[in-house]
Design goal:
The protein is mainly alpha-helical. The chain has one domain. The protein is 55% helix and 6% strand. The chain has seven helices and two strands, in the order H-H-H-E-H-H-H-H-E. The protein has a two-stranded antiparallel sheet. Helix 1 packs across helix 2, helix 2 packs across helix 4 and helix 5 runs antiparallel to helix 6. The longest helix has 30 residues.
Length: 179
């Protein structure tokens, strides 16, 4: 705390992004697919850790506990990186997540975005749950929903995904850092 009459230097916040237009849908979906590939490694390491610590010997034992554990691990992963601005996939595709004003998002907002982002998978998986469908049929329904959900961003005034609009966030182009 500064003495009376002396102003303390302000701590600079991360600069606001000035161009708030959404990256092209192709680029955002390429980033989404790359993120999915990277998540394979997170699932592998987390699954190994879970099975080792819980002494699970069969893949179907503790299945629901493993799913809950992975849900928490994904939440930590995405909340952490989104609060920093980018995941590795977003960095690769020069995409950043910011709030409506173009500023960095808080961990609370990142957690809200994480919860809302499950709209990509929960509706189709919930729709196929009561039926005894093959893996191929489930894949077609899930991928069909993902395509529809991605295309619905065309109806948003700024072209953002709807879960971003609901979370108060947006995806924007991010210039790579020069070295």
């Amino acid at each position: 705390m500064a003495p009376p009459g002396v102003t303390s230097p302000s701590i600079p916040k991360s600069p606001a992004v000035t161009d708030l237009t959404a990256p092209a849908i192709k680029r955002r979906m390429a980033c989404w697919l790359y993120e999915g590939m990277l998540m394979f490694g997170v699932v592998f390491i987390s699954g190994y850790l879970f099975s080792t610590l819980s002494q699970t010997r069969h893949a179907l034992d503790n299945r629901h506990a493993l799913q809950a554990f992975l849900f928490v691990v994904f939440g930590i992963y995405f909340t952490w990186f989104w609060a920093k601005g980018q995941t590795l996939a977003m960095k690769t595709w020069n995409i950043r997540v910011v709030d409506r004003q173009g500023l960095a998002i808080s961990q609370t907002r990142a957690l809200g975005r994480y919860a809302l982002s499950w709209v990509w998978l929960i509706p189709p998986l919930g729709a196929v749950a009561p039926f005894n469908l093959s893996v191929g049929e489930i894949a077609v329904i899930v991928l069909g929903w993902v395509a529809v959900w991605a295309l619905l961003s065309r109806f948003h005034p700024q072209g953002q995904f709807w879960h971003d609009a609901w979370a108060g966030t947006r995806l924007v182009h991010s210039e790579p850092l020069s070295r």
